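Worked Example 4.2. Consider the chain below.
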Amino acid sequence: MSLKAVLFDFNGVIINDERIHLQLIDEILIQENLQPQKVQERQSSLGRSDRACFQELLANRGRVVTDEYLNQLLNRKAEAYVLELEKLDKLPIYPGVEDLIYQVRSQNIKLGLVSGALRKEIELVLNHTKLANYFTVIVAGDDITTSKPQPDGYILAVERFNQNYPELDVQPQECLAIEDTPAGIQAAKQAQMQVVGVANTYPFHMLQRCCNWTVDYLTDLELERVQNVFSGKEPQPSVSEC
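Applying the procedure from the previous section yields the following structure tokens:
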């Protein structure tokens, strides 16, 4: 077995924008004459799609909305997100992202992205940072109806790799996911992938319990060692459940 594809999460792995997302969700709730998020709601929203978050937040406040109305809220948030990023002199891309992408591509390993964020948000950032051409597969929040911790996004990513590169015959066990939240880690593991946890959002020790590899920063990830584990040259790291 070999490592054939690396799949990045987006928010909290590529771009440091969780604070912006939480702020925009609160603003929309207030515009809807609803209470902003409680602390535990903010925690549970991390790693999940905006659609899933809004559905739960609205239900918690006794508000029932149609899919059409929910889509309007999501589009409002996406438009506000674009405006927030335009205010910044430089996008808050995490250190090590570009270097790791370079390493992966130099080994002829395919790159993908699996996120609950809307495609327009993802493409805005990737185009602005000139990273868009490197990701041959993107699964965004508008491609699926479920959210992490469900594995559907990762399963769809494998299907798309095999549509684009049928000769590769990519299997989930030949993919590495890079995640920063328990919801994302569970999604990748349920899809039968090995996972790197990067301690951008949660403490190292929390992620270490349930990831194959855990790093404080992406610059700490030793891709060669990861490849050796996939190829059987080094033993598989032990993993417990999140």
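The chain has two domains: 5-16+93-231, 18-86. Residues 18-86 form a domain with the DNA polymerase; domain 1 fold (CATH 1.10.150). Compare this with Example 4.1 before moving on.
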